[in-house]
Amino acid sequence: MFKRILIANRGEIALRVQRTCRELGIETVAVYSEPDRSALHVRNADAAVCIGPGAALESYLVIDKIIDAAKRTGAEAIHPGYGFLSENPRFVDAAEAAGIAFIGPPAAAMRAIGDKVSARRLMEEAGVSVVPGANDIDPADAKTARREAQRIGFPLLVKASAGGGGRGIRLVSRVEDLESAMRASGSEAASTFGDATIFLEKYVSPARHVEVQVMADAHGNARAFGERECSIQRRNQKLVEEAPSVAVSPALREQLCAAAVAAAQSCGYRNAGTVEFLVDRDGSFYFLEVNARLQVEHPVTELVYGVDLVALQLAVAAGEPLPELTAPLEPRGWAIECRINGEDPYANFIPAFGLVEHVQPPMGPGVRFDSMLFDGLDVPVFYDSLLGKLIVWAETRDLAVRRMRRALRDLVVAGVVTNVPFHLALLDHPSFQSGDFHTGWLEADFRMPLLPEEDPRERHALIAAAIAASLVGAADGRGPLPTVGRWQRAARSRAVGMRVGRGGARGWRRGIASS
Question: From the CA atom positions of the chain, what is the Rg in Å?
Answer without folding.
Answer: 24
